[in-house]
Structures are given as C-alpha cells and as structure tokens.
Specification:
79% of the residues lie in helices and 0% in strands. The chain is mostly helical. It folds into two domains: 33 residues; 206 residues, MetI-like (MetI-like fold). Helix 5 runs antiparallel to helix 6 and helix 7 crosses helix 8. The protein is globular.
Length: 282
C-alpha cells in the first residue's frame, strides 16, 4: 500500500480559489444598474424629442457651413496692434483674477477644513459658505453682476475672475488640507501653539507643493474663463469676439477663435511645464 504525500505545491493548488468572471449577486447589481442607466437615457431622449438622425445630419453639414462662412479667416485682423493689446489685457486680467482668487481662497480653505479649522462653530460654516457660494455661481453670472455695478471694463472682469478662482481653488485647497498627516498638528497643539502657528508650521509645509500646483492650474482655468468673461463685458479678446459676432463679421470671428485656441494651447503647455517642474521639486 502506497502512502500519498502532500507537498506545499499540491496544497496551494487545492486551496487556490477558482476564477469566475461574474459572481452573484454582484453581477445582478452591475447589470441591473447598467440597464437602469440605459433605460433612463432612452427615456430622456424620447422625452426631449431628440432626433438622432437630424443630429447626425447636422454634424455632417457642419464642415460645409464652416468652409462657406468662416473660411478663409481674416488673419490680418488678429495681427492688428489693437487686438494684440486685447490679448495682453486678457493675460493681465486672468493673472490678476487668479492671483487675487488664490490669495483669498487660502484663508477660506483653512477655515473650511474640518481638521484644522480655528473655530468649527463659526469659521468653518462661514468658510464653507464662502467657497460654496463662489462655486455655485458661474463666471458669466459674476461678470453680469459686476458689470451692472462697476460698468464695462477690466475691473468687472478681474472681479468676476477673482470670485470664480476663489470657488475653484478654495475647494481644492480645502481637500488638500483635510488629507494631511495630523501628527505634526497634534504635536504643535499639545505644545500650546496657536491656530495660526499650527497652520503656518504644521499644515503649510505639507501642502505647499500641492498648493503651488493648484495655483498654476487655477491660472490656466482663469485664462480660459477670461475670454468668456470678456464676451459679457469684461474686456479683452472676448469683447472683440462679441463685437464681430454681432456685426456678422464671420471671417474675423474665425480668426479670433483661432487666436483664442492658440493662446489656450500656449497656456496649456506653459502650465503643464510649470506643474511638472513643481512635481520634480518635491
């Protein structure tokens, strides 16, 4: 009679779980959720009376409309000194609005971060309310409000971008603060440090690199929003775009759109390079 011996390899093979693609009831939840989403999308298309065939046909005619009305673009118009000055105005507006928004967003993020808020009963809800209020209103609405108060011009545009950047950067700053290591914070609190000292010496060293990257990204987003702000009365390239759209100067509109795309691409590459440099400096 032979005795069967077991080795670690045979034990591992016997105890290894069998792979299966779907397990019940996880598969039921997954496919049921997907089915509900598809049914909701189908009902939405039916309720909104969306004609898919008409939409596809319109997209097919889009290239013909662009070539007939917007080609060739009037590139001489965007090379005029007046328009080039408007590009500089847009850059200045985005920089000032982004810088002021980031500076104001830092204390609001400090107040609205639950783990390090100086006063959870008063400052925490005020900080949250400030960030949420700035995020809840679109930059175009901010522009209309400030234009109605301050009049047309870059002051209204900078003010609108500042409010937009407060909401955008404040939320990201607060999330970064709430994700820090609480060890240094508790140590400084135990040593009797004030709330400001805790924030300055225990929080800032942990988030300074992330804050720098967020500030760069905020300027990138502010530059994109500056053209929209200008369209509604904030000045810069957006004002030229609005004027030519209203005058049906399609060739000039095409040139302005191309210049905006070029400037956004340049801002994208510049902000990406700066963020990469910040990440390498960690």
């Amino acid at each position: 009679m032979t005795e069967q011996t077991t080795t670690p390899d045979t034990i591992g093979a016997a105890d290894a779980p069998k792979w299966s693609r779907y397990k019940y009831p996880e598969s039921l939840y997954k496919h049921g959720t997907l089915l509900l989403i598809l049914l909701f999308l189908g009902y939405s298309l039916h309720f909104l009376n969306v004609d898919i065939g008409l939409l596809i046909g319109a997209l097919g005619r889009f290239a013909g409309v662009v070539s007939d009305r917007y080609y060739p673009p009037d590139l001489e118009y965007v090379l005029d000194w007046g328009y080039l000055a408007s590009i500089l105005d847009t850059l200045q507006m985005s920089f000032l609005g982004g810088f002021a928004g980031v500076c104001l967003a830092i204390p609001l993020a400090w107040f609205s971060a639950w783990n390090v808020s100086p006063n959870r009963r008063v400052l925490f809800p005020l900080g949250r309310l400030g960030v949420i209020s700035c995020r809840a209103i679109h930059e175009t609405i901010w522009t209309i409000l400030f234009v109605s108060v301050l009049g047309f011009g870059m002051l209204a545009g900078v003010s609108a971008l500042t409010m937009f950047c407060i909401g955008f950067a404040g939320k990201l700053f607060a999330d970064e603060i709430e994700a820090i290591d609480m060890g240094p914070v508790e140590a400084m609190r135990a040593a009797g440090a004030s709330s400001f000292q805790v924030f300055l010496f225990a929080v800032v060293p942990q988030v300074r690199v992330a804050f720098t990257g967020i500030a760069i990204y905020t300027w990138d987003v502010a530059f994109r929003a500056a053209t929209v702000v200008g369209f509604f009365g904030g000045g810069g390239m957006g004002w030229y775009l609005k004027r030519n759209v209203q005058q049906l100067e399609n060739l000039r509109v095409a040139a302005i759109i191309l210049s905006i795309i070029v400037m956004v691409l340049i801002a994208e590459f510049l902000s990406g390079w700066l963020r990469a440099a910040v990440n390498r400096a960690k």
